[in-house]
């Protein structure tokens, strides 16, 4: 029986549960012996001119080896997003101006780790405050410029064409609304960390917490002006990334430069307080949605206008509206789709990828639009969706957003979710509660979504080597940090080779061993790196057959794998001689390296139904149930797949209900501790009802699509919609996320006021 | 998140702790569970020169019946309150309140004395002790004195306790079968209260409705006059000046106080 599709228990866990993980900060690698500890002095002000920095007292503090300011660093300031305005570079250490709370201003190097914060307090920086730009619309006016040399606060514009005033002319009904897709923080439990040491060979070994060793290597090499081969990145265990650890942070470059400058290893690990302003944040789009169609439920035209917040220094966040625009029409076959986006800088932490990265923003927008349209024409929101989704016979389907959807059965996914939840029964219960005048009302939200996985990085490599003892070693260019590739990749190889999972070791995150690799992001790993492992297994079998042909005195065509014994045998000749992979490896190195290139992304899809209870007296929302259909093609290991869905759904619910990074008008973060930032615990979440559905993609031989972000994309709009749905009878059509008790209560007060 | 360096002492008796506190004066700070003190030290908002750790003094960890009252040692952990048989029978409000504090780790470290001394108006136990009409027993080299809970909290993070005084005991009346309830309103299960209401024996304590824990006097008076629960609860926010933060406006908190008071009174009446 094939191991594929079975619940193989994670091989990673025994170590995590006993010895614990080894994060960058835990490393005892001897190359780091005698390392200096880096403490960064960070700006407490969002926008200011620096009038002076006095490091003299800090230099005298115990244990201090060096205190550096930007003046001391002879490297050009990096442009963190190559496509951005060239003037929007981020200084290694700010010298003239600070642009967000948390921006590094001085670097303190100490012998002892605990000496750093004491010395850092002695660095005296004089700031002359400038007006802070926090709101994207205010930023877009360019009244206060963050980078006077740039002459604008706009970092990018996508689609400069003016909107067509007649776009909705043939629509019977048009609804428009400004909505917010708020900023959130990845809040990975392991904060950022990096350690660097230069060897006698002139190469730098950089240990860091990251989702992509190769990308981090290239960026750091570019910043330092050295060849990529001079930087050796090694990733220890990584305690969560959620998109915020894709590629190098400027701090990594600084650590590497300081190690070269001082001739000593340098270690850096940020505190939670630093992390809450220093690590990139996600989402943050102000959207205007306009939807038009006919009263029979057919949507004809949809427009999405986005103003996105890049934060102070443009990073990947500047790019993400490209995904938002591409995925704007969602699962729907809409005749006319129009979108544009502007990305501006503000005096806040930079934005970048966050689980879903651009696609949840698209889904949240179109799903809100569908709800508004349904409410306007008085039709059931699930019904409106089913009328408008792309029908199965139209695949592959090229959307007005420019995406080519590979495979999908969107209406079926909605139906499965509706059936599983007993949608009609829920509506009846909702009605009964309203009629009884209950204080606690029921809300039901339906979402339909499609997303893009493996977008942008379609190729991945894998190597497999079988050892004479019968074990195997896989190197992958993906970069697991919780996803379970050690288990999944071993299953893929085991399925073909018959080598048991427990005898297969999966390694990753070392750029000397795997010089190329795309890392783990955008739910790409299984459909690229996993498929590469499958392909490598097949190639290893071919190689083994060629070598076995001589030994077994048979032609290659007559040979096959006996997976029960991890051996090559002659087909249909029981009892004849066989040779195991191990025996072949004993004679000669048995190893292959291959690249899989899918050339295209895949488009997982699904539908969620959420049921919430809204306490109308307090505004508190409790998620009662959530049914999730998340179709990512065939499931390799249900345990891992469910884990991804659970985590994704939890994060998605949290965006709908709880999480928001808030800055005051001066750019001071109000949510920079775990007491204030509302990420959820298990107690805030219901048990999840996962409904199976598997539609393979034709893009790869195993039919796999990505599952890492699906839960986040489907659950957020379903839950937000459910909250609003509970209050629909009061005339409430929209409440921005997060739908906190305060916001919900205020919406109810306003509705009641307007009514009376 | 690395605190400023400090000296550390762990006296082996209450008397030694009192003496050390008197001797080192302003430099010294008591640490019990450390679950309010250490976070502010790590944020460098506090930098005591000397930590006097009383967390392991067993003589401060007890719950016992003493006449009409129950006496609770200041070093009694939240978890000990939760599982105390004496409290379950004599003052059932307290275990119920303790159960809502933070998470299990916090409850196994934090102490009732520390919670009361810290004086955070968003804390749970102070309002409960206030609703119970409890007494706080303080000791210094000058001797021992008792301060009624109604006079103990003087402002945000400030109390009637002198710097050289230690809380040694908390005394609360044996409320037995009198109706009680605790309604704590949070965003997340282990958060501090946005607002909370403690009800016991017709008295009402409010959490996070001002700079100190408060009694809802207007509600109590209305109840004493025999007004209905709904009428009495409608007065719960009277005279309060609740804070503004990302979780709530004053208006919202006042609404919560009224709703939660009504619910707590209804639950209490049903017990
Ligand atoms: C994650 C987290 C969540 C929390 N959630 C909640 C919550 O939901 N509700 C809530 O009410 N609290 C909460 N707390 C606070 C917790 O209850 C603390 O334990 C409590 O507030 C303080 O008790 P402690 O023993 O830890 O005091 P410490 O931190 O040791 O001391 C606090 C202060 O009191 C002084 N002090 C301590 N003991 C005495 C004494 N006997 N005499 C005189 N002075 C003394 C100290 O000098 C210090 O100033 C939370 C804490 C954390 C870390």
Automatic annotation (TrEMBL), chain A:
Residues spanning the membrane: none
Entry superkingdom: Bacteria
Keyword Oxidoreductase part of the UniProt annotation: yes
Name the UniProt record assigns to this protein: Carbon-monoxide dehydrogenase (Acceptor)
Keywords, comma-separated and alphabetical: Molybdenum, Oxidoreductase
Residue ranges occupied by any Aldehyde oxidase/xanthine dehydrogenase a/b hammerhead domain in the UniProt entry: 19-131
EC number: 1.2.99.2
Gene Ontology MF terms in the entry: iron ion binding; oxidoreductase activity
Xref: SMART domains: Ald_Xan_dh_C
From TrEMBL, chain B:
Transmembrane segments: none
Name of the top EC class for this enzyme: oxidoreductase
Top-level taxon: Bacteria
Stored Pfam families: CO_deh_flav_C, FAD_binding_5
Protease among keywords: no
EC id: 1.2.99.2
Keyword tRNA processing belongs to the record: no
Limits of the FAD-binding PCMH-type domain: 1-177
Keyword annotations: FAD, Flavoprotein, Oxidoreductase
Listed SUPFAM superfamilies: CO dehydrogenase flavoprotein C-terminal domain-like, FAD-binding/transporter-associated domain-like
GO function terms (MF aspect): FAD binding; oxidoreductase activity
Name of this protein: Carbon-monoxide dehydrogenase (Acceptor)
Species annotation: Pseudonocardia dioxanivorans (strain ATCC 55486 / DSM 44775 / JCM 13855 / CB1190)
Source species taxonomy: Bacteria, Bacillati, Actinomycetota, Actinomycetes, Pseudonocardiales
